[in-house]
Amino acid sequence: MVLDMTKLNKENGFFHRRTNAVDVETAKIPSDYNRRAAGSCVAVSPDKAEPVPMQKVSSRKEVLDIFEQWVSGQNAEGLVVRSEQPVVFKVKPKHSIDAVVAGYTEGIGENSGQVRDIMFAVMREDGNFQLIGVTGNWILENSFE
User: Fold this and answer.
1) What is the separation, in whole angstroms, between the first and last Cα of the chain?
2) Are residue 50 and residue 69 in the same domain, yes or no?
3) Based on the domain organization, do 138 and 82 belong to the same domain?
4) Would you say 72 and 85 are in contact if contact means Cβ atoms under 8 Å apart?
């Protein structure tokens, strides 16, 4: 099976430079994988930069145990799970929240009269609303100008 490189992370090293394709059956982990992985596993905050721990596992149960320890227990954002195949999974906790639509913006030009962005808020204990985020399609709208 051959996968188009545009659907894969170009940094993983599993692609043929001439064809920009990946042959999944023959893909091997690059010889410099550990060096590259160690260099890319650094926290963003410069005052608290530290390598992100990596651990090899051999079963789904071990992945679940690490998820419970790191994500549930230590408030990590999630896990990045790599397999021997050129596949990467991001495993994150599922969150549920009750929010209200606090506002919206309209599209421009051909999108006039359509919802462009939606603002969400939650109600604080003092009865005021706290904006928690915005979602929308402004990038798509601007990319066609």
Assistant:
1) 38
2) yes
3) no
4) no
The answer on 79 and 120 residing in a single domain is: no
79, 115: one domain: no
Say how many domains are in the chain. Answer: 2
Pair type for strands 100-106 and 115-123 = antiparallel
Q: Are residues 64 and 132 in the same domain?
A: no
Along the 145 residues of the chain, how does pLDDT read in single tens digits?
444 444 444 444 444 333 344 444 555 555 665 665 555 554 455 666 667 778 888 888 998 898 888 888 887 888 888 888 888 888 888 878 889 998 888 888 888 888 888 889 999 999 999 988 888 865 554 444 4
How many CB atoms sit inside 10 A of residue 26's CB?
8
